[in-house]
Amino acid sequence: MTPRLARVCATCLSHKVNQNDLRISSLARTKWFGTGPKGPDGDGDGSGAQVPSGPTLPPFSWGASRCGRRPLSPLERVSQMLPQESLSDEVWELREKRTREENEDTETQTPEKLNEDTDVHEQPGDDDGVLEVMTHAHVLPEERVMCFGEVVLAEYRRRRRLELQKMFQLEKGCKLGSSWGSVDHDVIQGCHAGTVLRTTLGIPMLIRRPSLEEFTLFMKRGPAIAYPKDASAMLMMMDVSEGDRVLESGSGSGAMSLFLSRAVGSSGNVLSVEVRSDHHRRAVLNYERWRSSWKLRSGKAWPENVHFHLGDLINSAPLLAGRSFSSVALDMINPHLALHTVVPHLRTGGVCAVYQANITQIIDLMEGLRCSTLPLVCERIIEVQHRDWLLAPSLKKDGSFHQRRKSPGEEATESENEDGGKEGQVSAAHFPFGSVPYVARPHPEQNGHTGFLVKMRKISR
Ligand SMILES: C[S@@+](CC[C@H](N)C(=O)[O-])C[C@H]1O[C@@H](n2cnc3c(N)ncnc32)[C@H](O)[C@@H]1O
């Protein structure tokens, strides 16, 4: 591996990016992006798009390695996974050499045979728009390919940065367009989730299925959502488990409803109360969109266990009459005003978790609790913080790796081993593993504040 390529590999070590800010900033850097039927190629909209430069080469064919000829070298494999503009001239030369060899080899094959064996997708009407599947993961039983109607996620990472992340629904005849080129939805359809496809500009774009966390972050929003890190802490506070009955308010954009839906499973249920009809509609739409995509991706139905009710929780005594809940999640304005309606229906020992953005709102809640005779005790007030870290092999200025310095003791043991070691035995110091030191520090881009969580338990006095 050349020092230059090693440097590129190192800088491409992925980190968990800031979910809110970085995504916003990465999208802000995107000059053009769309997933509609017309792409920048079609309507000329993306003419001003910044295109990373790099030598022009015929695209790789993976077919060769699949039909029993020379397997790819580690250098070739790695270079194909990396942003093309970051490759050194040396790597491009090697790639050129391989392409030439490939062409010589394929001359002996009939075109029909080549078409059968290779996995190159040609875009109709796109002169240089050859898209290709860049990874051929082993297909496992019950693995399902992506299909029209499914919600998928496109991702492009360059060096340490997540340049683009976009969630969209696969639709026949549509195009995923961006400043980095476009990919036809028809090409994505039929690929396995987690496939790297090249855009029309040769940029490797990872196409995969979003997790529930990602779906809630990218879905269309009405009001602000309960952020996944906070939602999972709330689920833990409330100790939500399979079969539980949970009351939630307000439904908002439906993020918390989705997390609750997964936690209570098909034997449990969630009652989600929302006062605004537009928010109520948005929550229902997001819930249904996730459910239908889930059915397509897994072949199994997502439980229909959330009942979305349009109404004011404060005046919901008639709705709650005769019901009992294992726990309650409140993410609404003035939650202390709803406690007198809700608490009689919370089982003794159950938890009411409240999510609020400002600490002054928590003070109001505490003061409301102090002035009431409700059998509730506040157990905890927390803020959940995730700290992202940067971790990469330590590099010299010339791009080569630093080497870990041996202690005098290690050096002595090593020379003893070399002298007295049995023939054929290799000292551990000869293995490259562990020879490179790493740098590790908090990532410069961190998540900002999202909210405070309050855990209140119902007790019997
Ligand atoms: C921040 S949003 C909730 C977001 C939601 N947890 C999510 O994850 O998408 C707050 C919601 O509470 C609703 N709300 C406020 N007061 C309410 C009340 N008295 N009864 C029901 N809903 C209420 C608002 O209309 C708003 O949609």
From TrEMBL:
Recorded GO MF terms: tRNA (adenine(58)-N1)-methyltransferase activity
Basic and acidic residues bias: start-end ranges: 113-124
Keyword Methyltransferase: yes
Domain (TR61B FKBP-like): residue spans on this chain: 148-202
Domain named tRNA (adenine(58)-N(1))-methyltransferase catalytic subunit TRM61 C-terminal: residues: 211-454
InterPro entries hit by this protein: SAM-dependent_MTases_sf, TR61B_FKBP-like, TRM61_C, tRNA_MeTrfase_Gcd14
Disordered as annotated region, ranges: 33-65, 97-128, 399-427
Enzyme Commission code: 2.1.1.220
EC main group: transferase
One record GO biological process: tRNA methylation
Alphabetical keyword list: Methyltransferase, S-adenosyl-L-methionine, Transferase, tRNA processing
Reaction(s) catalysed (UniProt annotation): an adenosine in mRNA + S-adenosyl-L-methionine = an N(1)-methyladenosine in mRNA + S-adenosyl-L-homocysteine + H(+)
Domain of life: Eukaryota
PANTHER family, sorted: TRNA (ADENINE(58)-N(1))-METHYLTRANSFERASE, TRNA (ADENINE(58)-N(1))-METHYLTRANSFERASE, MITOCHONDRIAL
Name this protein carries in UniProt: tRNA (adenine(58)-N(1))-methyltransferase
Species name: Tachysurus vachellii (Darkbarbel catfish)
